[in-house]
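thread: overnight batch results

M.L. [08:02]
morning all. the overnight job finished for the chain we discussed friday. pasting input first so we're all looking at the same thing
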Amino acid sequence: MMKGKVTMLIPALLVAAQGFAQWTLKECYEKAEANYPLIRQYGLLEQTKGYTLENIATNYLPKFTLGSQATYQSDVTTLPVDFKALGIPVDIPSVSKGQYKVVADVSQAIWDGGQTAAQRSIAKAANEVEKKRTDVSLYAVREKVRQLFFGILAVNERLKILDLKEADLHSNQSVLEALLKNGTAMQSDLDRIRIARLQLEQSRTEQAETQKAFCRALSLFIRQEVSGPEALVKPSPAMLPQKEGLVSRPELRLFEAQTLLIEKHSGAITARLRPVVSLFAQGGYGRPGLNMLEESAGFFALGGLRLSWNFGNFYTRKNEQRILQSNIRSIDLQRETFLLNTQLQLTQDQAEVEKNRRLLLRDEEIVGLRERIKQAGESKYKNGVYTLHELLQDINAEEEARQTKALHEIQYLLHIHNYLHTEGE
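M.L. [08:03]
and the structure it wrote out:
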């Protein structure tokens, strides 16, 4: 029994050596999310939004264009009157069939009907959708962290049970060795004890390696050393928040962001129906200039106010709005489906919590009864009225009862946190 007590003191000594560095499940969630590579997506999205908004802001900057052309025409405009035949000494020059010009055009938007504002709103809404999508992906990381966290605790409970069984086997082996010296026991009985201890050591090795693997995986998630279960704080059912109310999952916020983005696109459709007003100025050099009857090349310039109105957008407006409404209905259906599936999962999680709670109520009583039966069996065996095989059955039955109780407790905690995760803690 002393060996079992020493083994149970090891985790406490390790905690003291580490300065009581322990992590709660919530802290593991936070650290996993903070260190997950996808977290850098938020920074990239902010950069992208900044660049996009800067590009949209250029809509109200002056636009410069430079163009040139050279042409040769088969005919040019002339006056269909022969003034000389009429005795009028007037020589009307004709335009050359070869023409060229270089033109610089500057335009400044005054009002674009709200198209720039609509583009800005769409860019922000689209960026928010990507952020919410990233939130959903990061929330899924919690599922993996939770499974590892409770997996480590579950394996630790199994190892504790194996320690208890090892202590019992060691104690019975000592008794059997004494009986063997007195000639009241058989060597085959001692061999059976040794086989049981070897098999137990195999189980311990298997469970210990599983625990190491879980610890390494959790350490990678939270970027902190998790040497063993002593580094984790086992949740207490009494400390768990009993949340009741609406589902608050990041998926729902994603649906809201997607709906808002569609509404912003609707505003852009309306903005395209309005006219665009701008100032413009042109300057150039060519032949002919603004005076079409001037043969020589020269500089020219003009400026003014321009209004443009694309009526073609009215043709497609109705169908574009219908498409957007269909997309909104599609998102609503996705939301309804998600909520239904979530409620079904909550019902299942709640049933599992209640089941394990009821099982735990009986586990303590079963363990107590199994322990009394084992103690009675040890006494019977010492008095020679019980076989070793029967004693080993009692030991195994108690070990199984303790293991079942420990697993039910871990499963109870796990399903509580599954419920909270599904609800959106």
